[in-house]
Amino acid sequence: MLRSPYWHEMVMVVNEAPKGYKSPNYEKARIVLLKREKSKVQKALTHFTNEWVDCGVSIVSNGWTNIKTQHFINVLGVSGSGAVFNTCHDSSSISATSQNIANLLLQSIANVGLNNVVQVITDNAANYKAAGKVIERTHPHIFWYGCLVHTLNLLTHDIVKHEECRWINELYRKGKQLIKFITGHARVNYFYGTYSKL
After folding, report:
1. Of the candidates 147, 140, 139, 170, which has an alpha carbon nearest to the alpha carbon of residue 63?
2. DSSP structural state of residue 198
3. How far apart are CA 165 and CA 105, in angstroms?
4. Cα separation of 186 and 111, whole Å?
């Protein structure tokens, strides 16, 4: 069984509960306390979302695949105050056509308010570019931009193809192995997050 690196801290806190403490019943935890926490989170997010009306917001999407090879698309609202998670779509059951991707992004645009959205940022794959064009046709005041990090990643791949830059490719490969090791091991990831300022 894979345990969270924080499980021992949770056990310590539970053990330090005052004598006679009675934990909430299932219904209270599931309904009352959950609604209270949701309200707190929504209140905390108003700092971000209020800025969207005055300054605008960028809809940013990021695709990823889990260890079961299911494909997901995360959508964030990003402004000067920071990023707010909007939604996550399990796209493994749909075809990744430009229209399907555009529909997912248009849902997120509607969620944050059409008049608040300034731009949509995705990766530079052809289907995402085409989805951006669909959004621009549907809402002419919203612009599509390709992700700069993705562009730089593609540029780096092109550079390392040249003979005099092959050493960069080896360095890149080792860096990816290191990242995969850190993120793939809960305890190592915990120590990295605790002691690294990166």
Report:
1. 147
2. -
3. 38
4. 34
Whether CATH 3.30.750.24 fits 11-147: no
Give the sign of the dihedral formed by CA 52, CA 55, CA 56, CA 58. negative
**Contact criterion met (CB below 8 Å) for 182 and 189:** yes
- Beta-strand relationship, 117-122 and 143-146: parallel
How buried is residue 100: exposed, middle or buried, by Cβ count under 10 Å (0-12/13-18/19+)?
A: middle
CB 89 within 8 A of CB 75: yes
d(CA 106, CA 133): 12
Phi and psi at 82, nearest 5°, equal 140, -165
Whether the Cβ atoms of residue 76 and residue 49 lie closer than 8 Å to each other: no
Backbone Cα Rg of the chain: 22
From 5-14, 33-42, 158-167, 174-183, the region with the lowest mean pLDDT: 5-14
- Residues 132 and 40: their CA atoms lie apart, in Å, by 34
Residue 127: CB atoms within 10 A of its CB come to 17
Tokens 């004598």 belong to residue: 19
Q: 0.90 exceeded by the pTM?
A: no
Number of alpha helices (DSSP H) and beta strands (DSSP E) in the chain: 8, 5
Can you tell me the distance from the alpha carbon of 59 to that of 61, in angstroms, rounded to the nearest whole number? 7
